[in-house]
Amino acid sequence: MPSNEHVRFIQGNEACVEGALYAGVEFFAGYPITPSSEIMEHLARRLPRRGGKFIQMEDEIASMCAIIGASLTGRKVLTATSGPGFSLMQEALGYAVMAEIPCVIVNVQRGGPSTGLPTQISQGDVNQARWGTHGDHAIIALTASNHQDVFAMTVEAFNMAETYRTPVVLLFDEVVGHMRERMVLPEPGQIPLVERLRTSVPEGVDYHPYLPREDGRLPMSDFGGVHRYNVTGLYHDMWGFPSDNPKVVHGLIRHLVDKIENNVDSIARYKAYYLEDARTVMVSYGATARSALHVVESQRRKGQKFGLLELQTLWPFPYDIVGEACGRAKQVLVVEMNMGHICAEVKRALTNAGNVFLINRLDGVFISPTDIRQALRLIAGRGV
Amino acid sequence: MSRTRLVFSGSGGQGVVTAAILLAEAAVLRENLFAVQTQSYGAAARGGATRADVIISADNINYPKVNQPNILVCLTQEAYSKYAPIIRPGGLLLTDLRYVKIERKVEARQRELPMYDSVMEKIGKPVVFNICMLGALIGLTQLVRVESILSVLETRLPAEVVAINRQALELGLTLSQTARPRVA
Prior knowledge:
The complex is a heterodimer.
Chain A lengths: L6 E5 H12 L3 E4 L6 H13 L3 E4 L3 H13 L4 E5 L1 H17 L3 E7 L16 H6 L8 E3 L4 H18 L2 E7 H5 L1 E5 L61 H16 L2 H4 L2 E4 L6 E5 L3 H14 L4 E6 L1 E3 L3 H8 L4 E6 L4 H9 L6 E5 L8 H11 L5
Parallel strand pairs in A: 2-3, 2-4, 4-5, 5-7, 6-7, 10-11, 10-13, 13-14
Antiparallel strand pairs in A: 1-8, 6-12, 9-11
Helix pairs in contact in A: 1-2, 1-6, 3-4, 10-13, 11-12
Chain B lengths: L2 E9 L4 H16 L2 E6 L9 E9 L13 E4 L2 H7 L7 E6 L11 E6 L1 H8 L6 H13 L4 H11 L2 H20 L6
Parallel strand pairs in B: 1-4, 4-5, 5-6
Antiparallel strand pairs in B: 1-3, 2-3
Helix pairs in contact in B: 1-4, 1-5, 3-6, 4-6, 5-6
């Protein structure tokens, strides 16, 4: 049993703050928006006390640009927003993808499109996280259904941002963000941290910011430090200078996508509940996975072979893992609060997509076990 | 202990959300139980019927909202009209005698206590109305120990206001002990 001093009773947004501090966040820039504002409020107080920097920017475009700049100088950086702010961040997010700048962006989802439903839950930004910025690219997006996992996934987001030199999106939702529950603060060192890979090239020697090592990783040099180099959103050569040489362009786009898509298994985080003999498999993530698990456990008590695959990595989508978990099921039920973002991917992962059903709610009301049971009856042809 | 589902309802500013957080926090931090607290945001949080949900359990809680509370607290007539129908049969309905007029019988233990009037008479500060309610609730249900609530209050509040909060908590406890079931 954990000692009392490590037990917290906090909101999901605070669990995210705890995770970010544990991971070593040093810079936060943001603009407040419901339902993410508590992340900003808590960091405004706590980050400066630890020697970090907190800045409230004029908007989300500036917030994203500020964290990109701070990251280039060698800092671990974070911003937090919700759908409308996330829309504004997309251009600079693409810049961070192209220039390979580690950063973490939290989107506590609310109802959209536009200003939508500020205080209510939705999971409608799943595909925005994937394709919100233009052009072919890869991205990492993680989520969580409870505060212990919000903490862990936040630490993982910082680790993956450094490992793959990429923006990582934390896609939480209003219910998890605002709900209060128990969380046990891990001891320092309990979750390993990935620190910035810095170049060993000394001052006065040519440093190639975009020349990968043999393992494909690109050591960084703190911008404004001992090396002068160029950073651009244009296709660029190993010096960081713009290039439209087809070989350079092709090499870079392949590199940007492959460094993530070739590591799907290393990036995949998920939880499996009762899947061994499950005939009905639910796939869910974020707060909705809590309602799905409630139904799965009550069905199990009745002897029904239900199981749950809770996804924590949404992008890159773990097609093989989903295929393996759902391949033998009689039916697959995807529970999410949107019009089927993950359901479409689950269908792509399975040869028999006809067995895949979407169970959703779009009205801002958190999907309940009763809603899911009602959908189960409809799917079984038994009516409401 | 199995699982207790509570709904605290009233109007914005009465402190029903704070009371819900204090109770859940006492359960988690002082009694090593599991608890989840959620609340209504938006228009309901600025006047109108405000609602805070708490589930307290010996084990992990998945679905965090309350559909049918075992324990329903209503501190305004509007909250009573809106939420009385959702109480779980056999549950407990706690209302404030000044603010709520009971209109119909529900299949639950009903306790009407003069919480607001007692707070104004004995302490004179309406701000601790919610703590008095919490005291009455603990007295009626023994959900958590009084010391657990006190200890959370001492951690969260500035020292100079702890005393009146303690007084309000004890006032609520006393009221709960004098309570008699409502004669229908």
